[in-house]
Specification:
single chain, alpha/beta, six-stranded mixed β-sheet, globular
Length: about 250
Amino acid sequence: MNIRCILLRHGQSAWNKENRFTGWEDVPLSPLGIEEAKMAGQLLKNHGIAPQIAFTSYLQRAIKTLWLALENCEQMHIPVQKTWRLNEKHYGVLQGLNKAETAAKYGEEQVLLWRRGYSVRPPELESEDSRHPRNQAKYAGIAASDLPGSESLADTLDRMLPFWNSTIVPSFKNHHTILIAAHGNSLRGIVQHLKGMNEEEILALNIPTGIPYLFELSPDGQYISDRYLIEEDELNRRMEEVKNQGKAH
């Protein structure tokens, strides 16, 4: 039996609304984000998709999105596993800064590379900084050497893939419908891995908030097809919104 793997970027967060770099900062969903998460669950229900197991990050905007989506597709009983390896890309010292203002200061091309580039890391947080994950209680059980002060997409993929291979793919043996509620860049890493995208293609990939992205995979996790559970015109509008966040207005 083929596998259905649903990727769900969390609903709009408070800092998404303010167009700020968020990364590992643990900000809540906005009121719109709560509604997006509920609608994501309703879309799954309307398409007859009932997740059997779910995975999410350590960040509340993804966890809350997952809760609301599962509630609205009536699947709150399923097992859920949280991992820091599905966290958003760490944006280093950019976290909290307005994207448009940062683009005006450093240029849109540089901000695009910091946001979407495959191998470019934003400026790094010092390890003594209170915002560094090494100094946050939720990451106390993780080796300090594994916790970043900044990441590129390649770094995000490198820390996400071991979990994909060791935990998510083996779950396909017992579950044929998987839901992963995570973040724009951790999900971009999964998409790149599944579809074999090159650096130029991944640079142009924008995943909108709160819309289930359905992949059909072979039993061993090989890509077959993908589609969003939303009309194409609305999808294109939402993708364009994400693309424009890094422009100097």
